[in-house]
Design brief:
This protein has 164 residues and is α+β, with helices and mostly antiparallel strands. The protein is built from five helices and four strands; from the N terminus they run H-H-E-E-E-E-H-H-H.
Length: 164
């Protein structure tokens, strides 16, 4: 069957999953990329950059350990979401690979992404509260949304797997 025929024959849950997952991935990438995890006055703090009065600079090797941990878990979440999307596309558009295995991969990578996002936001929020900076901003919110999207992705994968 062709790709379009496979898409037409896919269930509504699978189509919803195919629609949702790229959006979750995009929101996650934007969330970890922008330097607006904390904003107070003219200062913005992100995972990769610190901006003060419009002048931005990367942390480099001077980053705190908690920033490095957040960066690492954010990257793990991104790679997990990419793996989930690849497995979902293979499951939907090909007939060559066992669907049950791909469903298990989809669920596992979604859960891995959710836990990685959770660790990222928990460590960052906890440490920002320690420093008295409670103005969590857009980047933080986008990663929280991708955390919820990862959980929904795992649930959709489970529902789709039950139909096989």
């Amino acid at each position: 069957m062709s790709i379009l025929e496979n898409l037409k024959s896919a269930s509504t849950v699978c189509k919803l999953h195919l629609f949702l997952l790229p959006i979750v991935l995009l929101l996650h990438i934007v969330g970890i990329a922008i330097p607006e995890w904390i904003k107070f006055g003219d200062t913005k703090i992100g995972l990769w950059k610190l901006c003060n009065y419009g002048n931005c600079g990367e942390y480099g090797s001077n980053a705190s350990d908690y920033i490095k941990a957040c960066q690492a878990f954010a990257i793990i979440a991104t790679l997990s979401l990419i793996g989930c999307l690849v497995a979902l596309c293979l499951r939907t558009f090909t007939d060559l690979i066992r669907k049950k295995l791909l469903t298990q991969i989809i669920i596992a990578t979604s859960i891995c992404s959710a836990f990685s996002c959770l660790i990222t936001v928990a460590v960052f929020a906890g440490k920002s509260n320690d420093t008295g900076r409670k103005n969590l901003h857009a980047g933080f919110a986008l990663v929280c949304i991708s955390l919820i999207g990862s959980i929904v992705s795992a649930i959709l994968g489970y529902i789709e797997g039950k139909k096989d």
